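Project outcomes to date are best conveyed with an example. Our students and postdoctoral researchers have been running inverse folding experiments weekly, and each run begins with a structure described purely in C-alpha cells. The record below, which covers 200 residues, was selected by the lab manager from last quarter's runs and is presented without edits.
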C-alpha cells in the first residue's frame, strides 16, 4: 500500500492528488475507491460512498487523454483492445488515448487505485461533478445521471470520456443540441462536494 494511503473502507473515496491547475494542465492524478463488483455477495455498507460512474465497467474511450491505472490495494480487471488483464497491488497499466477500454473491480472486496490522465483537461472537475451527483442521489444505481443532466455535463467537458455505444462525434453533437434544454430545466454543468446537501 502506498505511503499515507488508508484502506478502502476508511479512506476518502475520491481524492484529487494532483489537479489540473497544480500541474499546469499536464496531468490529473485521482485516488479512488472502487466498490465490490455489482451482484457480489459482499455489501457496500462498509463503504463511505455510493456507486458512481468512475466505478463502472462499461466500455468507454478518452478521445484526448492517455490513462494510467496503478493498483494500491485489491484487484482490477482491464480489457484493452480485446485483451483482458488482471492487475493487483503494485501493478500499473497505461491505456492509450482514443482506444476503447473498460476496467472494474471484479471481486467482492473494495479496491483502491490511482488514476492518472494526460493531459489534464478538466478531469478533476468532471470527476468531482459526477461523484457529487451520485452522493446526492441524483443518479441511477450505476451512478449515471439522467440524460439532460448528462448532456449539460458532456457539453461542458467535450473531450473527456464517452461510452462506445455510438461514435464520439455523434454523441458530442447530440449533447450540444440537448444541453441548452437541460440548462433551461435547471441543470448545472459542474458541482462540488459542498453541493451534496443542497442537491438532496
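After processing, the design step wrote out the following sequence:
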Amino acid at each position: 500500500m502506498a505511503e499515507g494511503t488508508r484502506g478502502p473502507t476508511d479512506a476518502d473515496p475520491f481524492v484529487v492528488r494532483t489537479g489540473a491547475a497544480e500541474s499546469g494542465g499536464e496531468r490529473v492524478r485521482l485516488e479512488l475507491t472502487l466498490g465490490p463488483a455489482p451482484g457480489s455477495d459482499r455489501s457496500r455498507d462498509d463503504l463511505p460512498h455510493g456507486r458512481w460512474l468512475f466505478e463502472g465497467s462499461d466500455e468507454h474511450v478518452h478521445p484526448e487523454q492517455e490513462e494510467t491505472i496503478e493498483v494500491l490495494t485489491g484487484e482490477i480487471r482491464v480489457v484493452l483492445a480485446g485483451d483482458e488483464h488482471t492487475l493487483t497491488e503494485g501493478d500499473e497499466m497505461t491505456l492509450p488515448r482514443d482506444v476503447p477500454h473498460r476496467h472494474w473491480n471484479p471481486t467482492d472486496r473494495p479496491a483502491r487505485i490511482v488514476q492518472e490522465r494526460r493531459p489534464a483537461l478538466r478531469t478533476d472537475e468532471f470527476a468531482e461533478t459526477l461523484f457529487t451527483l451520485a452522493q446526492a442521489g441524483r443518479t441511477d444505481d450505476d451512478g449515471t445521471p439522467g440524460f439532460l443532466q448528462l448532456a449539460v455535463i458532456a457539453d461542458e467537458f467535450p473531450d473527456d470520456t464517452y461510452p462506445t455505444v455510438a461514435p464520439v462525434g455523434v454523441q458530442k453533437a447530440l449533447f450540444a443540441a440537448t444541453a441548452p434544454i437541460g440548462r433551461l430545466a435547471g441543470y448545472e454543468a459542474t458541482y462540488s462536494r459542498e453541493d451534496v446537501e443542497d442537491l438532496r
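The first strand starts at residue 14 and ends at 18. DSSP finds four helices and ten strands in the chain. The training component of this project remains on track.
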